[in-house]
Amino acid sequence: MSPGHFVALAVILFVIGAVGVLVRRNAMVVFMCVELMLNAVNLAFVAFARMHGALDGQVIAFFVMVVAAAEVVVGLAILMSIFRTRQSASVDDPNLLKY
Amino acid sequence: MTRGEVLAAASGAASAAESTAFWVLAVLAVAAALGMILARRAVHCAVLLAVVMLSLAVLYALQGAPFLAFVQVIVYTGAVLMLFLFVLMIVGVSSADSLVETIKGQRMAAGLAGIGLLVLLSLVVGHAALASGGAASASYGPSNMNGLATLIFTRYVFPFEATSALLITAALGAMVLAHRERTSPKPTQRSMSKLRMAGSHPAPLPGPGTYARHNAVDMPSLLPDGSNAGNSVSPVIAARRAGLAQGGTGPAEGEGQSTTTGREDARS
What we know:
Structural class of chain B: mainly alpha
CATH class of chain A: Mainly Alpha
Number of helices of chain B: 9
CATH class of the domain at 12-93 in chain B: Mainly Alpha
Radius of gyration of chain B: 30 Å
CATH topology of the domain at 12-93 in chain B: Four Helix Bundle (Hemerythrin (Met), subunit A)
Largest sheet of chain A: none
Number of strands of chain B: 0
CATH superfamily of the domain at 12-93 in chain B: NADH-ubiquinone/plastoquinone oxidoreductase chain 6, subunit NuoJ
Shape of chain A: elongated
Structural class of chain A: mainly alpha
CATH architecture of chain A: Orthogonal Bundle
Largest interface: A-B, 69 and 85 residues
Number of domains of chain A: 1
Strand content of chain A: under 5%
Shape of chain B: elongated
CATH topology of chain A: Helix Hairpins
Distance between the termini of chain B: 92 Å
Helix content of chain A: over 70%
Order of helices and strands of chain B: HHHHHHHHH
Strand content of chain B: under 5%
Number of strands of chain A: 0
Oligomer: heterodimer
Largest sheet of chain B: none
């Protein structure tokens, strides 16, 4: 398998995640789509690391995983506090910063 | 058959196995990802995301990254998705997206943007020189772990320490955000019993299903005159039944009828 195949798969998954972020309105699902995009980028990193025969890409993918874990923790905590006050998980409802 | 021919045959078999695994996993991952953005319920989305992540883990292992494959399974599928499911349990498992568009033409615009992004990225990848199979260094294979550890603790030691600070900050932030200040004093046993005596019903409420046809939790118990005791069913279950009946689903209607027949049976 050439790295091109893996990068093409990563591109497809990234685009699916981006469309999901644009289309879905449940904040949880939006978060999951962001996770999908991060995973797609990780796949591309691993493919490039193999292409170059160096491990740097794998280290970057590892760091991406750590940052994604931190992001999920804080994001879900924000989501929970919004749900607690608004009783809703839709991204349409919180509009206090809008006006 | 010379040694070179044997090696070539072995590598050919290995690459055939790799390509088979790649195509199976790629189709699986793309299908699960598409299902994730199409599924209405958030729980189904989480399960489909788990499928995507597990197939990506196998793809990592296929590309000579066993450490990342295991981290993917442990951190993503194990920790992150479980966190997602926990929060889903709190927010409500049955919370489904409404299909009504709040912004007119948003889906069409999002689809067009997605196609545009796909074309753009495909052009970029198509123009990039992706050489097939670079020189496999000694860091691939059994010593992958050692190579990664050497890199993390030498060249990337400062980013690694920064991620530890980031993780601590994230944990603190989650604790602060999820913490709820108590605005009223905590009720004691004394205050709760005073509250009960002040109310109109000091005795325990009737249990569901008493003198009714079934003793299910959603079956109201019957009063001496044969009418339903409304407060015998938990308000949560009553609200759920009302929601089901509003949705126009069949089972709720059937249950309602069985309730009335049960009451008539108990009466006669």
